[in-house]
Amino acid sequence: MTGENLLGVPPTLLNPEDGVAEALSVDPDKMLPSREELEAHVRRFPTSSLLWALLAERAFDEGQVIPSYAFARVGYHRGLDALRKGGWRGQGPIPWSHEPNRGVLRSLYALRRAAEAIDEIDEVTRLTDFLTNSDPTAIEAIETAQFHASQRAAAAESASPEVDAPESSTASTPETSTEGL
């Protein structure tokens, strides 16, 4: 792929979301804030598709597929609002390489992932097409970022000291009983 825009439609380049990057104070591609932190940020910046996408990712990672779907759906609609405000007319590139576009693309991806988890196949197909037509590299870039973030989180978790439970004076190795088998 040459990277040429064959549609002749100029790429949509969103403006940065004022205050959101500063509020996060960490790179969301490197470390996902806690759910409580994200909810507080969403209250401050309810139009941020990035924050809704991150909240959807956090919920999905916690096994909460339906809330993830709902959060991603809000992020998707906030993203459409931002795209339209940015001059997008329903077609044309939305490059991942332009960082302010990433909230919209991550919302699309999060909605696609949650839709897949609830077997909403038509939505998965539509969102895959939307992402691919927006930027053919977006899905791979998002999955790579999420993979590396989960690897860093796992490494951080294993490196942090565990809190030892108080030892009991009657502690012993549990015996396995075969009675009743």
UniProtKB/TrEMBL annotation:
Residues 150-181 are annotated as: Disordered. Pfam families: DUF3151. InterPro entries: DUF3151 (IPR014487). This is DUF3151 domain-containing protein.
